[in-house]
Write a structure and sequence with these properties.
This protein has 372 residues and is of the alpha/beta class. It contains 13 helices and twelve strands.
């Protein structure tokens, strides 16, 4: 499928995807919990932050390359885990991983992927002349510890380089769009391939993903015993939890509200980032996802203390719009926007970004003063 007019930015990819997707699937991807306040806040909070560039610094051409948990990446932008790529495009995660591998960025494979993690890794090796792909694996801790162990071992043997444990999902968020559309079952040919054999589970059920409401720090300790992979906690918003994560030997955290799909009215991730950066104070890498749509958003997140960001919906929109080529274009646009933003800030590498380059928009700070 080739597009007549190529989108020129990530938001236009959403429109292109919407034109091609079944409206029920579009709603599944776009939607969030309840009133979707947090979905909107994630994006609008970026717009409320101003960039205050430096000048005449003789900066060299920007080089956005970075390294996370020992894994090099062409830019500090990862693919966040998103479930069910097959309902976005028939080539599913295979198209996504080819684009990620060619762009030399890290893809987080969702536990709920519709292609098995081993097959995704093999596809990536295919475009990388057999070299090891840059894959992380996202896990929802399962009530059945032996199934969790088996999944972790599968991810490790497939060559995944980190385990991203999603910790904001003791229960599923309430997605009213899905209820309105009565979307609760995946089509028969779409299955969560990593869940086959999980006792009592229906791997095609959209809403009956088995979660562990009783999940606690003890589960993280157990995971530590199960694997030598770095453990990344995804879904941290409270600074006390960030401090506990450091104390419990977690290797990195992702400041995330699950793209507004879990608890509605949580703060926008970019608004919460500074307090988490202070809590962690550089002891472990800090990642952020939620509402990142522009190169300038990446610059703002890095200036406020993130080491990298991740894209959720924009990757799905690229995939739905044009398969591998769509995801490739999303990543290419992001890279060139990021290079442009770095150059215009007078900075030549992500690590040079600092808090003095950002400011809260005046009317925001005024309204904060009024509230205080
Ligand atoms: C359709 C969709 C499916 C998702 N599936 C998962 C998942 O299976 N596991 C997970 O940890 N996060 C999942 N997420 C959350 C993303 O990893 C990420 O936190 C979020 O999408 C970032 O916000 P953004 O979409 O505004 O970029 C999903 C998000 C979307 C939009």
């Amino acid at each position: 499928m080739t597009m007549d007019l190529s989108p020129v930015n990530l938001r236009e990819f959403e429109r292109a995807a919407r034109d091609r997707l079944d409206p029920v699937y579009y709603d599944y991807f776009a939607g969030g919990a309840q009133d979707e306040h947090t979905v909107r806040a994630n994006e609008s909070a970026f717009a409320a932050i101003e960039l205050v560039p430096r000048i005449l610094r003789g900066a060299e051409d920007p080089e956005p390359a970075t390294s996370l948990l020992g894994c090099p990446s062409a830019m500090p932008v990862l693919l966040a885990p998103t479930a069910f790529h097959r309902i976005a495009h028939p080539e599913a995660e295979l198209a996504t991983v080819r684009a990620a591998a060619r762009a030399d960025v890290i893809m987080t494979v969702a536990m709920l992927s519709t292609v098995a993690v081993e097959r995704i890794a093999e596809e990536a090796r295919g475009v990388l002349d057999g070299t090891d792909p840059k894959l992380w694996f996202q896990l929802y801790v399962q009530p059945d510890q032996e199934f969790t162990r088996a999944l972790v071992q599968r991810a490790e043997s497939a060559g995944c380089r980190a385990l991203v444990v999603t910790v904001d999902s003791a229960a599923l968020g309430r997605h009213e769009r899905n209820d309105r559309n009565d979307f609760h079952q995946l089509p028969e040919d779409v299955q969560c391939e990593n869940l086959r054999g999980l006792g009592g589970s229906d791997s095609g059920n959209v809403r009956r993903v088995t979660l562990s409401p009783e999940i606690s720090w003890q589960h993280i300790e157990k995971l530590r015993e199960m694997t030598r992979l770095p453990i990344v906690l995804k879904g941290v918003l409270h600074p006390a939890d960030a401090r506990l994560a450091v104390r419990n030997g977690v290797d990195a955290i992702v400041v995330s509200n699950h793209g507004g799909r879990q608890l509605d009215t949580t703060p926008a991730t970019i608004a919460q980032l500074p307090v988490l950066a202070d809590a962690v104070s550089g002891r472990i890498p800090l990642l952020l996802d939620g509402g990142v749509r522009r190169g300038t958003d990446v610059v703002k997140a890095l200036a406020l203390g993130a080491d990298a960001v991740a894209l959720g919906r924009p990757i799905v929109w690229g995939l739905a719009a044009d398969g591998e080529a769509g995801v490739a274009k999303v990543l290419e646009l992001m890279r060139s926007e990021l290079e442009n933003a770095l150059a215009l800030c007078g900075v030549s590498a992500p690590k040079e970004l600092s808090r003095d380059l950002v400011a809260l928009r005046k009317e925001n700070s005024r309204s904060r003063e009024v509230q205080a």
